[in-house]
Amino acid sequence: MKRLLVFVKKEFLHIFRDFRTMVILFLIPGALILLFGFVVSTDLKNATVSFLDLSKDEMTQKLSDKICSSGFFKRGENLKSFQDIDPALRGNKIKAVIIFEKDFSAKLISEGKATVNIITDGSEPNMATMATNYISAIVADFNSELAGGGKAAALRVQPEVRMFYNPSLKSQHMFVPGVITLIMILICALMTSITITREKEFGTMEALLVSPLKPIQIILGKIVPYFILSLVDVIIILLLSRYVFDLPVKGSVVLLLAEAMLYILMSLSLGILISTVSKTMQQAIFISLVGMMLPTVLLSGFIYPIENMPKAYDWVSAIMPPRYFIIIIKNVMIKGTGFLYVWKETLILTLFTLGAIGLSMRKFNIRLQ
Amino acid sequence: MTTKTIISADRLSKSFGAVKALQDISFEVAEGEIFGFIGPDGAGKTTLFRIITTLMLPDEGKVTVLGLDCVKGFRELRKNIGYMPGRFSLYMDLTVEENLNFYATVFGTTVKENYDLIADIYSHIEPFRKRPAGKLSGGMKQKLALSCALIHKPALLVLDEPTTGVDAVSRAEFWEMLKKLRKHNITILVSTPYMDEAMQCDRVALIQEGKILSVDQPGKITAGFSRKLFSIKAPEKYQLITALREFPLVNTAYPFGDSVHVTFRDDVYDDSLIGFLEAKGVSGVIIAETRAGIEDRFLELMEKK
Amino acid sequence: MNEKVISVHNLVKKFGSFVANDHLSFDVYKGEIFGFLGANGAGKTTAIRILSGLSRPTSGEVIVAGYDAHKQPEQIKKNIGYMCQKFSLYEDLTVKENIMLYGGIYGMKKQLIRDRTKNLLERLRFEEYGDRLIASLPLGLKQKLAFSVAVLHEPKIVFLDEPTGGVDPITRRQFWEMIYETAARGITVFVTTHYMDEAEYCDRVSIMNEGKIEALDTPAGLKQKYQAGSIEEVFIRIARPGKN
Description:
Chain A has 14 helices and five strands. By secondary structure, chain A is of the alpha/beta class. In chain C, helix 5 runs parallel beside helix 6. The longest helix of chain C is centred in the C-terminal third of the chain and has 16 residues. In chain C, the strands form two sheets. Chain C has a six-stranded mixed sheet with strand order 6-7-8-3-9-10. In chain C, strands 2-1-4-5 form a four-stranded antiparallel sheet. Chains in contact: A-B, B-C.
């Protein structure tokens, strides 16, 4: 235990004495949040929409068919009441709910106008904005068809848009989960793999291996400092988002931190794993960046919605742990859902973590190659 | 020698792909000895030391260190070996003191407990104990690395090229320190590419291309030189060497500092050499018989192969 | 042997208040093998940087290959060669590609590079290695090749940093024979090293300590003056009083 402590102390000294490490640990997170405050535009394709049809007449049938045959949307399960809307959106599969008001056709004919309500998931602002724009355009098209079909030009279907979860649609909020996910991979995988390969390069690893230190002590000694500092980072990011962007954690903070710890642990194990297969710091940096950070940015749904990816990318994305963490953190942080909504993702992440720890322990050599 | 055997290596071999780093290496080191491995870079010294320090597994053969098998007994062995790898195993961003304390704790001891062992060495660098190791001179880094390797009072100290890249003064001091460690009954295994350092060891093994050429006391190794050796000097060295090579009775001619070391066929030295050299335009020649050094012997052994 | 190739007079180099080179004065002649020794931190590296045009002296006269180190460092660089202990060859290029590259860097004509390459490979009995990658060559061959490349452009002076550290005794001797041959061709060889037995091969040796040149003579002359059996003893006698 004393050996472990002295090792941890040594790691902290390395960290606090290296200016660059400190920058990566404490400046980059803030900088990234601001940086990713910009929206990256994406395309919409086959997003699932559900209908809450309160009149079930010819007109609503026609309009819903038109929306679903546009190629942008596909029909999800039909909802029966207003109570169904919230769970449907929280379930993550449905991007928008379209509500036809009662006596739709009758009103359209008698009053010359009827209302379509469009409710979207504001926790994915790109998706939400696009979905509303496209649906509105389809409704407008429907209106002109009605006019062309000899009906009175005054007949109008009015779209009314509402957004759940992030009503003001501040897009930078959406990047907070992404940035946390990214920062954790950056600090944990990149930094741990660098510190271990640095010891290999400088020859100190030889001395450690020859000492009575057990591999588990070396690994823990590397993990503990970064575990603590990563957690500090998560808290800094959450505070920033609360007080700078005015975005509080809607769900349980304890749950969020617990999930973050799980993810940090997994990233750290990945870092150790990377260091076992790289001989030099350069290799470790390369593998971490290309193998961890790029996929996190591109494939985890951080910037590009997974729904819009070709099937093959979707499959690749399925084996990217960050994908699941992003889902978890979005749910807990923005939608305020509880553990019951994210237990599946949590389980997947736990399996990844155990796998990574197991593999890195096995691969960590007690000898030189 | 009736003392006990500390290292016993039996027919060790190790290859990296097609490169045979070690071939059939056998030797024994007795307690309290300073045992040197002398050979050029790439001869296999580092590989051999890594096997002895349990960092690598041999492909074939067996090593017993301190009575323990290097493969099976590695956990126990690691507590009793002090190892200083070729690149000083210091944390350059930690201070002198922090480095020493770290290694002490890792080996389950304290600086205080074994201070008497390192006092001689550490006292040179103690005035700089708050300085990061990276800011020390080569000689001081070497002393700190040695202190760190010694802090747990190992029975066997393994030093891989400790004097490479260090100036002559620091090197001389370093060898003095190693000799002082004898009184603590620590066995020392050391490697160096520099032939002249062989004389500092009790026994040496000359190693080349993964094979041991000879193992003995340095004096006996040089005494093994089988021919008469002549030292020939002339102001124009290049002309001297080329001319010597053309002389029919010359067996070998190698530059050696300011002279050329020459052996003759059948050890017959003939006065006609001076005339021959003068005819070639080499004047001012001085010829004297000389005693062979380690390097002469190494050359002779290399040629025999 | 009387043509001066390096002429240094009262060279001073300061870094802030620290005097790295304290009034150095020495001459090196054409075709000479000059050993430049000193303890770690004695100021050797600083002096060599100035001599090779990489840094400017604070004061004093420094003429290298006929050019002034204050005003014409670029001219100096064109007229010297350099080889450090970690070979300056690219491991992932072939022997010929490396030679081509260095010839090109020194502005040599293609035909000239080709002729010299052929000549060089023949002399080293390297012909079959021309298209091999440097990484695949044994250490000794790399070292000889690195030296040949450093003098490919026939510089007036070649600087060698610990040229034979760590090589086997036979290769080492072949290497020194190459140095002798180069010097006999009129190229000055300037050797810096930690290893005093390398110094024994030089025509003259200077020993630096704490920024000053404390001794300069032939190896035999130094040994006689200090009543020592080897340059190593001479060196220790000069450098030790100043050590902590």
